[in-house]
Design a protein that fits this description.
The protein is of the alpha/beta class and about 325 residues long. The chain has 11 helices and 8 strands. An 8-stranded parallel β-barrel has the order 1-2-3-4-5-6-7-8, surrounded by 4 helices.
Length: about 325
């Protein structure tokens, strides 16, 4: 296993050296990738957005996250929810977003602003283009020439009924819109979230826009990572599924290498925006999987963000609010 990671690290070193020497690559992209190494997803399911009510996340948690060794947070915003009938964003949500950016910056954290509201795009893709563009039009206007440590992520997990063609069309429109206001903003773009190993190869992004980072998520094998998931009828009652062994580790590495080959050929940095295991999985296997996925991503030079700080898949105990130490160690420390 260490030989495999060493080989991936060689691939990564050659790619990153070429990336930094590429005259087409803006220095701001190199800077952003250097500050998006180890992150955690936050605030997707908290009451923060509605006045800091009923939310477990506390202001102090920004400091705790930084102290634990994370360099950024991926802030999950259900953005389309806050568009009114005239497609205008709720000013209270925008004010909260400003406050979150201030808190993150004060604690030395970069931010990935993730437009997490994907349900419309997955169920009725023909109806999601205009609301998505309305969201980014207002975000880009608000933060133009400001917040250089904020990276935009156009849409979380496009997929469902959406085709590659529909996603590429929406993505091109969103990129063009943001670039009119913010030509220098670093933007994260996902491949279509479908069960196709070569999905990233069908991602169509402007060849001349070199301020882009491509993102993927990883939860394989689902029977292990999602065992006990109440929203999945096939897995809700599944328990005691373990993970480990050379074949299982090799599968992760092979899956990532498919993406790495494409990224190297296209000279595009990659960001692992989500990965995690539900609390219902056996704790030792949970930590083992998490460690291996994180180390494999790092061997390829990818930044990552664990899913997530609290709620399900959590890094902290929901009652005591203390770190799950074995899981945190799996993320932050090397192979045992």
């Amino acid at each position: 296993m260490r030989r495999m990671l060493s080989r991936l690290a060689v691939i990564s070193t050659l790619f990153l050296s070429a990336l930094e020497c590429d005259a087409k690559v803006d220095s701001s992209l190199v800077e952003a990738t250097a500050h998006l190494k180890r992150g955690v997803n936050i605030l997707g399911y908290d009451g923060v957005w509605d006045g800091w009510f009923g939310n477990p996340f506390e202001i102090e948690d920004f400091r705790r996250i930084r102290k634990a060794g994370f360099d950024h947070v991926r802030v999950n915003v259900f953005g389309l929810k806050y568009l009114n009938r005239s497609s205008v964003l709720d000013p209270k949500m925008l004010s909260t977003l400003d406050h979150i950016f201030d808190l993150a910056e004060a604690n030395g954290l970069w931010v990935v602003l993730d437009q997490h509201d994907n349900s419309l795009c997955q169920s009725a893709p023909e109806k999601c283009k205009e609301p998505t563009l309305a969201f980014w039009r207002q975000i880009s206007a608000r933060f133009a020439r400001a917040r250089p440590k904020v990276v935009y992520e156009i849409l979380n997990e496009p997929g469902g009924a959406m085709t590659h063609e529909q996603w590429n069309d929406l993505l091109h429109a969103a990129l063009a819109l943001v670039r009119r206001t913010e030509p220098g903003r670093i933007i994260i773009v996902p491949a279509l979230n479908v069960a196709e190993e070569d999905a990233v190869e069908k991602l169509d992004i402007p060849a001349d826009d070199r301020r882009l980072i491509v993102t993927v998520h990883y939860y394989d094998p689902h029977r292990f990572t999602h065992q006990g998931a109440p929203w999945n009828s096939a897995l809700a009652n599944v328990r005691n599924v373990t993970w480990g062994g050379e074949a299982a580790r090799r599968k992760v590495e092979e899956d990532f290498e498919i993406i790495a080959r494409w990224a190297n050929a296209e000279r595009r940095p990659v960001y692992l925006g989500e990965f995690g295991v539900l609390e219902t999985a056996p704790p030792v296997s949970r930590a083992t999987w998490t460690r291996h996925v994180a180390r494999t991503a790092e061997a390829l030079g990818w930044g990552w963000a664990y899913w997530q700080f609290d709620h399900d898949f959590a890094l902290v105990d929901p009652v005591t609010r203390e770190w799950n130490r074995p899981l945190l160690d799996a993320l932050m420390q090397g192979e045992p």
